[in-house]
Amino acid sequence: MTEVQTAQILDGKATAAAIKAELKERVSALAARGITPGLGTILVGSDPGSQWYVAGKHKDCAEVGINSIRIDLPETATQEEVLDAVRRLNADPACTGYIVQLPLPAHVDQDVVLEAIDPAKDADGLHPMNLGRLVANVNRPMVSPLPCTPKGCVELLLRHGIDLNGKKVLVVGRGVTIGRPVGLLLTRRDINATVTLAHTGTRDLAAELRQADVVIAAAGQPHMVKAADLKPGAIVLDVGVSRVDDGSGKAVVTGDVEPAAASVASWISPNPGGVGPMTRAMLLANVVEAAERA
Ligand SMILES: Nc1nc2c(c(=O)[nH]1)N[C@@H](CN(C=O)c1ccc(C(=O)N[C@@H](CCC(=O)O)C(=O)O)cc1)CN2
């Protein structure tokens, strides 16, 4: 039997397009003050997914009038060579903010590289100082960048008129780029959700899912969130991205949520086309905010 899709769509593509149009105006206002924001990227290696994401970031910059600076290093680059690229962007006045595309090759220590980024130029909000500010300033308006995917998740919900005040949110996944920071963001007083963070050590994920008004699935495990376990009418953000064989040898993007969830949820984000485009838009927002702060 084929399920009927009843959930409304949290359209990340359209929302990101609207945000980019707003950012374009802010970039024009900066230009009137003689400021052109610049985004730097450091890509190590030739992973096709990472190359695609970095190319997308430069295309987005061109669309809204942000300059971009690209540093590509080979897979064999040493940690010192990666740190050297970081130091170059820290010192480059044309670079307002920058990112180091993740994941890095296994021989490069991600924590060391992220800590070497100038916190004022941390366009991803992943420097320990900025993550610390998210913890410490949790109830104050943000004075530092937020990680792009968590910021994108919240923005996607709010721009669809979804009030999270008092909602029970289940975050699935405890990674530093999504799971942990999104929990902190959602518990800020102005958002006011009640958050449970599930992970591979969670004993009964189905029981947690049945309680949740909102599910943010960011574990990177194809279809681990089962439609049958969702509370009817739940709001579902499908964040995880995996590439799986579609049966004909072709790799297709697959989320963490079973497609049948669209017949149980009240709102659902498609994947692709949901949180991914929002991540891209939030990176641009962080660069514009950094230029405005400077
Ligand atoms: N330094 C960082 N590295 C990584 C981050 C990050 O935020 N900062 N996040 C991901 C990759 N990422 C951005 O870098 C990213 C992932 C997905 C999308 C996106 O638009 N996805 C499309 C689907 C595209 C596909 O076919 O894969 C969608 O959801 O519609 C944008 C950016 C890990 N690394």
Automatic annotation (TrEMBL):
Pathway: One-carbon metabolism; tetrahydrofolate interconversion. It comes from the Bacteria. Residues 147-293 form the Tetrahydrofolate dehydrogenase/cyclohydrolase NAD(P)-binding domain. Coiled coil: none annotated. Pfam families: THF_DHG_CYH, THF_DHG_CYH_C. NADP(+) binds at G173, R174, G175, V241. Keywords: Amino-acid biosynthesis, Histidine biosynthesis, Hydrolase, Methionine biosynthesis, Multifunctional enzyme, NADP, One-carbon metabolism, Oxidoreductase, Purine biosynthesis. SUPFAM superfamilies: Aminoacid dehydrogenase-like, N-terminal domain, NAD(P)-binding Rossmann-fold domains. Its EC number is 1.5.1.5, 3.5.4.9. It catalyses: (6R)-5,10-methenyltetrahydrofolate + H2O = (6R)-10-formyltetrahydrofolate + H(+); (6R)-5,10-methylene-5,6,7,8-tetrahydrofolate + NADP(+) = (6R)-5,10-methenyltetrahydrofolate + NADPH. InterPro entries: Aminoacid_DH-like_N_sf, NAD(P)-bd_dom_sf, THF_DH/CycHdrlase, THF_DH/CycHdrlase_cat_dom, THF_DH/CycHdrlase_NAD-bd_dom. Residues 10-124 form the Tetrahydrofolate dehydrogenase/cyclohydrolase catalytic domain. NCBIfam families: PRK14193.1. Catalyzes the oxidation of 5,10-methylenetetrahydrofolate to 5,10-methenyltetrahydrofolate and then the hydrolysis of 5,10-methenyltetrahydrofolate to 10-formyltetrahydrofolate. Belongs to the tetrahydrofolate dehydrogenase/cyclohydrolase family. Homodimer. This is Bifunctional protein FolD. The gene is folD.
